[in-house]
Every structure is written in C-alpha cells, then in structure tokens.
Amino acid sequence: xxxxxxxxxxxxxxxxxxxxxxxxxxxxxxxxxxxxxxISPILQDGALFAEVIDIIGGRYENQQxxxxxxxxxxxFIFGSALAYKxxxxxxxxxxxxxxPWKTHSVSYDLEYGSAAVEIHVDAVSDGDRxxxxxxxxxxxxxxxxxxxxxxxxxxxxIALEFVIELSFLNGRDKLNDYTxxxxxxxxx
Length: 188
Known about the structure:
The protein is an alpha/beta fold. It is built from 5 helices and 9 strands; from the N terminus they run αββααβαββββαββ. The strands form 2 sheets. Strands 5-6-4-3-7-8-9 form a 7-stranded mixed β-sheet, with helices on both faces. It has a two-stranded antiparallel ribbon with strand order 1-2.
C-alpha cells in the first residue's frame, strides 16, 4: 500500500511546535531573495533530533522497510538515523558523478538549467519496500528525480518523508501518486 495515514498525538504536536521554533531563518542565502531554513539547531540538540527520528520512525515501525533511500546531502543525516531505528540499510541518491560504481541516472529541471542525480544499480532490488527521506521539500524536482530512479529499478515506494516542506512552492504536486509526509510546513 502506497498511502500511510499520519497519526499525531498531543506529545507530537508540542514537539512539532518546538521543532518549528528551532529552525533558523537565514535571509538572502544562498542568493538574494531566498529565505534559507537552517536545520542546524535541530541537529545540534540531541533531544530535538531524537524527536524527529522518533516521530518519522514511528510511522514505519511495523512496515517492513527494506531500505531508506536518502537524498544528497542532508537527507543522509536523517535517513541514517531512521535506518538504524528501523533496522534496515540506506541507499544513496547523489549528485551526478559522486558515486564510484555503475549507476542509474535521472535528469531534472531547475529554475535555471538542469541537474542530474544517480543511484548505484544495486542500491535496491526489484520489489524492495523503500522509504525516501530528505530534509526539505521545495519545488519537488530532486524528490521526483529520486522517485524516478527507484521506479527505474522496480522497488516499491512506501512514502516520502521530509522534515520541512515549503508548501508555497507546491513541490508535493510532482509527487501526487505517493504518500508525502512533512513534519513542518512553511506556508510563506
């Protein structure tokens, strides 16, 4: 089943408010007009980081996830901790040219130009149950490229998980066929 319902408790809601407050806004980074959402304070606070992993991991404790597919680079941080919690491995989706062995590659459009991401051909297997994890969902281009890579291999995508979603950029629209969860939605 591709759809998973999000269950929240009052404890999780309080924690999400704390997580939201911990995100640091950095104006004009990496270029003028961009408000960068810095997750470093969450990573630096062991209790907050553990809360993120516990909330996301709690959704999948009984889902028999075979692999967590993590997107370069901050997805590696959250996905590694989730893999440990769920007792599965991780598979890396990296920018083109960063993986040392045979890869599948997918190109996607950016605001000005294009980019490509890759995954090792043996990162996951046909029929594997995978969870895709990244720190941020913005326009959805990188996430959709990750989905395309996994579909190319034939694995089953259980859901996509993000810590933050910039919902005003409508990235979720590129992922309509999948369950997409984010802990924190930024509306403007």
